[in-house]
Amino acid sequence: MARNPVTWLGSPTFPKAAKTALADTQLRQNLRKATGTIRGRRAAAVAEMTDWEQLRVAGEQIKDDVLARLDTLLVQLEESVTARGGTVHWARDAEEANRIVLDLCRAEDAQEVVKVKSMATAEIGLNEALEAGGVHAIETDLAELIVQLGDDRPSHILVPAIHRNRSEIREIFQRRMGVEVSDEPADLAEAARSYLRQKFLTTKVAISGANFAVADTGSIVVLESEGNGRMCLTLPDTLITVMGIEKLVPSWQDLEVFLQLLPRSSTAERMNPYTSVWTGVTPGDGPQRFHLVLIDNGRTATLKDSVGRQALRCIRCSACLNVCPVYERTGGQSYGSVYPGPIGAILTPQLVGDLHDPLAASLPYASSLCGACFEVCPVRIDIPSVLTHLRAEVVAAKGRTPESIAMAAAAWMFASASRYEKAQKAGSLARFLAKDGKITSLPWPGSKWTSSRDVPAPPKESFRAWWRKNRG
Amino acid sequence: MASAREEILNRIRSAKVPAAPQVVRGYNTKGTGGVELLAETVADYRAIVHVVSDVPEALKRLEGKRIVAPAGVPDEWLIDGVTWLREPLSIEELDRSDGVLTGCAVAIADTGTIVLDGGEAQGRRALTLLPDYHLCVVRADQIAASVPEALHRLEPTRPLTFISGPSATSDIELNRVEGVHGPRTLEVLIVT
């Protein structure tokens, strides 16, 4: 079976990548500024709502219902879309999805296509597959364009170029667009507008993702801000939408929940500037050929796991990234996947489906389990519980390892007060090995611990010893 | 070999996900806002808002301009002194116009959103996308207080566009900046 492109080929494990990222002070500064801004704004947008908790509960329940009836609802969606003049395709994995889209582009004789930002197409590596097949995909979302022109990788679900500040964006635009531009955000937006305008007006094929698909009407919903989505969804002759099979809602009424949860959670707005809804083909308005590609790519395997399947409730808002202390320090690229942050740490390994894969197996540990992600999640995904569940699976997949032996030894040691104190005494000797109050490498088997964590040097005297001397 | 469709459906069935409990809709479905709240929420997104009673008088702001007017725009809106552009219009003609005048299907007071459905006085979607200026007339009876009320009034199979303020982006340092690909100026007339 081909490898799942949801992780980037050749990416190091999370602790290795994080070590490099932590040394990048510019990156940390950019992220601290951006996530700090959005955290405050999200909290204000949510505080306006007196019924936020009720909306979250409804969002959770609707998505759980979708997962329970997924086969029936997908067939219903297919019928509704087909009845309105669309064509539905099914793809088991990334390779199959990419081939379907490439064939559709070739049938239209398209050498160039415009794209609306889409996580599904990033997950399957569609741009690279199209390029290899002779079709150039132009990203039209501002942040995606920054990533594409900078030959970079995305680092955030909503704002893939969040790791870039205004002056870095200016440099990329000047170099790749050949224009003089200031680092004022309004000027940078204007530069993107002029750069893409002719492409929008002349390109015949567009590719999009979908935020939601309504099973009973066949309506597809895309939320966006800039109008690049509207351009792609309205002007070309042919529209190809690639969507994960879990992006469904059963009925039109269910959108009343998600159109309130998503904008406030993602961009901290009461409503995002533009939301487009279309159902199949409308004569005289918009693309006259519509293809919907439904992708599995690891989702049905995730569905089998009774704890892990809640990750499929995700509506890709990215609120969990913005509140995560680990994400804020390591940035998104350390996760080695288009899905970074807390949701990535539970979704990516499940989509990969192979816990012997070193990167996938390292991701459930990319968390301090502080729980902030669960608190902000608009569909109440209990990310910390899924993380610990996946950690147990990683350990089980490994069998007996130095770390599991060390853990068993630790259990034996903690079980007796005298053994514990002896161990502490031995530990305080380790002070001599520590630099700056930190131990960065212990001899084996301790090296299995310090390879991904620094150990604070133990104090000269243990608390237990101090207590006996002073209060005992 | 089974088709991709059959294989995916079989994989889903073999996952045996237990049935979910009935969805509890404990959230608010009704709001109380009207003209006043809509004027505030639309203005929050840096759209220009006027509450007016005389539409033709308010449209005098368009004088001297070349403005797209979709089918179904009331005759009294087509005032003298404006060059009205009527369908059929090419992409280039839309792109070169000074703006577009439309009505709407629904507006949402809670969120400052106007919704177009391609019906009367709204036209196809490209009409409100390519011109750099959009003037939208909202009648008081078209205002829904909340998102649930608005969705209830809409016909989902029509092509719908929800518009909340002018085109914007949050992609540079997560701060909202107005004016990218869609109309950079949005002006809303609320008619009482």
UniProtKB/TrEMBL annotation, chain A:
It comes from the Bacteria. GO terms for biological process: lactate metabolic process. Residues 311-381 form the 4Fe-4S ferredoxin-type domain. The keyword Transmembrane helix does not apply. Residues 397-469 form the Lactate utilization protein B C-terminal domain. InterPro entries: 4Fe4S_Fe-S-bd, 4Fe4S_Fe_S_CS, FTHF_cligase-like_sf, Helical_ferredxn, LUD_dom, LutB/LldF, LutB_C, NagB/RpiA_transferase-like. Transmembrane segments: none annotated. GO terms for molecular function: 4 iron, 4 sulfur cluster binding; metal ion binding. Residues 76-294 form the LUD domain. Signal peptide: none annotated. Gene3D superfamilies: Alpha-helical ferredoxin (1.10.1060.10), NagB/RpiA/CoA transferase-like (3.40.50.10420). Keywords: 4Fe-4S, Electron transport, Iron, Iron-sulfur, Metal-binding, Repeat, Transport. This is Iron-sulfur cluster-binding protein. The lineage of its organism: Bacteria, Bacillati, Actinomycetota, Actinomycetes, Pseudonocardiales.
Automatic annotation (TrEMBL), chain B:
It comes from the Bacteria. SUPFAM superfamilies: NagB/RpiA/CoA transferase-like. Pfam families: LUD_dom. Residues 92-191 form the LUD domain. PANTHER family: LACTATE UTILIZATION PROTEIN C. This is LUD domain-containing protein.
